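Bug report (template v2)

What were you trying to do?
Predict the complex of my protein with zinc ion.

What happened?
Run completed; filing so the output is reviewed.

Input:
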Amino acid sequence: MFGCTTEFRLRDILEGLTCDQHIIAQDVKNKNGDIIKRYIKGRVDQLKQLWASQPGWVAPHWYEICLERPTRLFMDIESTAPADVVQRGLTAICKYIEYDLKVVPEVMNSCSEQKQSYHIVAPVFFKNVYHVGAWVRKCYQYMQTRIAVNKENHAGISLEDVRAVHEPECIIDTVVYTRNRAFRMCGSSKLGSPRVLTHPRLAWHDLMVQPALPPGVEPLTQLEFDDSEPVSTSMSAGRMFHLEGDTWQRTNPIQQHSGTQSVVGSFPRKLEPVVRWLEDHWLMDRDSAKFNLKRGTWICSTRCHRCLIAERDHRGNHVFLVISPNGRVIQRCHDEECQRQFMNIDVPEEHWASWFESWYSPMNLTMGCQKRSI
Ligand SMILES: [Zn+2]
């Protein structure tokens, strides 16, 4: 429609993507009533036409997929603290943006009575989403340092406002700066929620995180505090580093792939029905599959927050799956409380049929070794 294309798999919609196109994720219900994402690809003018063609869309559940491109500063502010406290924290954050980046941020609101929720977008471009993440961690460190040294006034930000950023816990969501993250767009609600993200003046296309880079604009580079290159990470700032005296130290060394044990690999063709079932039911990302040579299993990440171990949805992390060639699939989880546990996933048996047939197909041993079709 209007030159836009749609797909249900992110990898399919990413194929052939041109730099003037954007990818929008939209919440829709599948036939089981589960909320899944449908992906729409198009240029901004095409997406505007699509939006305008749907007068019934009061709030069309649109999210911008953050690709590896120049990206504006964006932040997610969330808290169950009292509204006036969160407002103070928000003021401190906006003032720090103005002080450090010399731009005035735009604030979108989707608060309810139970929850304070804001999105910030500022008109300044960073090299990519991960560099935005590094800047947000810098902002977090600024606030923490202010509290640690008890500095009353700096950059026009009062200590009381700084304290409100961490009241009772940090209101900045620091774990959203990951690859292909979906960021809700202005004018949209999550499917099933009445809370619409609103801005007093501007529309979704004014408030995109990855609009085209204006000519002559050089995106900013923001390294981590120890001068390392930022990477896609769902680790919170509070877990990544800590203050020792008056200097910041990394809590965990930068995670390195073990390299010796896993190889990037695609799934065998006969496993395709299982892979598709896991894509449909667990939002598995098949492109992330790694084969563990030692254990003989595939490890694969997902875009699914639902965790069978914790028996709830995680806000900050996706779960991952381990697929064993013996027909077993388990769900694991990066969450601190879940990471030593696992739960079995029952993939309906018929999806395994082609895989096991390839192993158990009869061979005539007396005729010697014959070619088997796999
Ligand atoms: Zn979990």
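What did the reviewer find?
The two ends are 41 Å apart (CA to CA). Confidence is low (pLDDT under 50) at residues 254-260, 364-374.
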